[in-house]
Amino acid sequence: MRRALDALYDGCAWLAAVFMIGVLVMVLLSVLGRQFNFHVPGTDAYAGYSMAAAGFLALAHTLKRNEHIRVTLVLGKLTGGARRGMELWSLSAAVLLSGLFAWFSLRLVMQSHEFNDISTGNDATPLWIPQLGMALGTLVLLIAFVDEWVLELRGQRQHIGGPETRHE
């Protein structure tokens, strides 16, 4: 199970990297178009779609590598059961919030598809297509938070404290 979850997080990170390359390609097309007098319609929109997909798809991988910004002002002062309780409370809130975010993101994709919602730009893209990146990213983030919650509950979660949590 651990290998499958890690593969999921890594796969989303690789997909996020592909979308970052997509941003680069769209920006280069736009710059080259201005330099050489040609226009590729929708480059701005597709750069935005790619940037959003890259951001959302990278969330779970970033969480699992302990790279999310955490405010540890209170947590750093706690030890033992109090710290574990606060970690579980924080992770429970994160599971709830990421679950709501995933639910409403998936619902947005379904509604955009159902209503045939189209971009108002000159690209006229069905909006459910770029919204898939956000929905997938939030769903995998939910899975990652549940994973962290279970690991904390079992006492298997690794706490990596940065310099702000060390008292030297």
TrEMBL record:
Transmembrane segments: 12-33, 45-63, 88-108, 128-151
Domain Tripartite ATP-independent periplasmic transporters DctQ component residue range list: 24-154
Keyword Coiled coil: no
Signal peptide interval: none
Alphabetized GO MF terms: transmembrane transporter activity
Location within or outside the cell: Cell inner membrane
Listed GO CC annotations: plasma membrane
Record flagged with keyword Kinase: no
Membrane topology: Multi-pass membrane protein
Record keywords, A-Z: Cell inner membrane, Cell membrane, Membrane, Transmembrane, Transmembrane helix, Transport
Superkingdom of the organism of origin: Bacteria
Pfam families per record: DctQ
Annotated InterPro entries: DctQ, TRAP_DctQ
BP GO annotations: C4-dicarboxylate transport
Oligomer and partners: The complex comprises the extracytoplasmic solute receptor protein and the two transmembrane proteins.
Family that this chain belongs to: Belongs to the TRAP transporter small permease family.
PANTHER family for this protein: 2,3-DIKETO-L-GULONATE TRAP TRANSPORTER SMALL PERMEASE PROTEIN YIAM, TRAP TRANSPORTER SMALL PERMEASE PROTEIN
Function: Part of the tripartite ATP-independent periplasmic (TRAP) transport system.
Name of the protein described by the UniProt record: TRAP transporter small permease protein
Organism per entry: Hydrogenophaga pseudoflava (Pseudomonas carboxydoflava)
High-level lineage: Bacteria, Pseudomonadati, Pseudomonadota, Betaproteobacteria, Burkholderiales
